[in-house]
Specification:
By secondary structure, the protein is of the alpha/beta class. It is 39% helix and 25% strand. α2 packs across α3 and α7 (253-262) runs antiparallel to α8. It contains 9 helices and 17 strands. The strands form 4 sheets. The protein has an 8-stranded mixed β-sheet, sandwiched between helices. Strands 8-4-10-11 form a 4-stranded mixed β-sheet. It is globular, with a radius of gyration of 20 Å. It has helices at 19-38, 50-66, 75-100, 136-144, 172-180, 211-221, 253-262, 270-282, 297-301; strands at residues 5-10, 42-47, 107-109, 113-116, 128-134, 148-152, 156-161, 166-169, 184-186, 193-198, 201-204, 226-231, 236-238, 246-248, 250-251, 288-293, 307-309. A hairpin with a 2-residue loop joins β10 and β11. The longest helix has 26 residues, at 75-100.
Length: 310
């Protein structure tokens, strides 16, 4: 009998922000992932990278300014660096936890590129903030380079970039091969490296992909049974921030789509999670999507916590 497959999308709280925090957070995160593996699940992991890619982007740009012969790094390169840096800690943390339990399985991080549409609307209306806050002078320099910036009142200026929807996963055959060999894969980190075809080449795009959308696409492509999006809240809620706010334990596709149309979910946080879940569940039989916190992951799988969409 084939094992069930789950894609687990790790949020910021599962990874921390800086190097020491990430090491500590991954140790605890690995225990939850190992529980699923020990229970017989085939696991594929994706993860966020917002603090990490911002740190790398800032560091590379500042270094390039201060040292002759060095240049700033494009966002696609910074995304690749973050995949390797986070994957390194994750795969070693999971391996160590599995070995403690007498489980010997390879854990591999796959540097993953995501094909995006060059005509995606987000390229014309970039909204995703990256990097540190800048002065007005620095912001003007960025604009002169052709980049977009926005002012955050009382804080300064930040660069904003596009967040296109992922179209396809370049390394999907490699990911499938690892999964078919019953091994653990870490892929599509930070939403994947956005790329576009130019002749025979793949060119990195100045963009970041929403990691929940990438997780949903990965789950579809490997024909997973469950998509589990782990975030900072235990449940999806409706009427958020009002006296009528209430958590939702189960949603049908129809109910989820109705809530989306009502504008119940915040554009930059919960909405992509719901949309990715609906898309995944809609394109297969017997699938379910779960949105919850890392601490409630096991209970949510048993239907005792979190929000399940099916």
């Amino acid at each position: 009998m084939a094992k069930k497959r789950i894609v687990m999308a790790l949020g910021h709280n599962a990874l921390g922000t800086n190097l020491p925090e990430q090491k500590e957070a991954v140790t605890e995160t690995a225990k939850v992932i190992a529980d699923f593996i020990q229970a017989g699940w085939q696991v594929a992991l994706t993860h966020s990278n917002a603090p990490q890619v911002g740190m790398i982007h800032t560091a590379m740009n500042e270094f390039g300014k201060q040292h002759d012969g060095y240049t700033s790094a494009p966002m696609s390169v910074c995304s690749a660096m973050s995949q390797g840096y986070i994957g390194y800690d994750l795969q070693n943390g999971i391996r160590a936890e599995l070995v403690k339990r007498g489980i010997y399985k390879p854990v591999a991080t796959i540097l993953t590129q995501m094909m995006v549409d060059p005509y995606d609307d987000s390229f014309y209306t970039p909204m995703k903030p990256v990097g540190r806050f800048m002065t007005a002078v620095e912001a003007k320099e960025e604009e002169e380079k052709g980049n977009y910036v926005e002012e955050i009142p009382g804080k300064g200026f930040r660069r904003v970039i596009a967040s296109p929807k992922p179209v396809s996963i370049v390394e999907i055959d490699v990911i499938k091969a690892v999964m078919d060999a019953d091994q653990i894969v870490i892929a599509c980190g930070g939403g994947g490296i956005p790329v576009m075809e130019q002749g025979y080449n793949l060119k990195g795009a100045s963009a970041v992909i929403e990691k929940d959308r990438a997780a949903g696409l990965l789950a579809k492509e490997i024909d997973a049974d469950v998509l589990m999006i782990l975030t900072s809240v235990d449940n999806v809620t409706i009427n958020y921030g009002t006296s009528d706010e209430r958590p939702i334990s189960h949603m049908s596709i129809e109910e989820a789509e109705s809530y989306i149309n009502e504008g119940q979910f915040e554009f930059a946080s919960m909405l992509p999670k719901i949309e990715a879940s609906v898309d995944f569940v809609t394109h297969g039989r017997g699938r379910s999507a779960i949105i919850t916190s890392l601490s409630k992951a096991k209970a949510s799988l048993a239907g005792k916590a979190g929000t399940t969409i099916e």
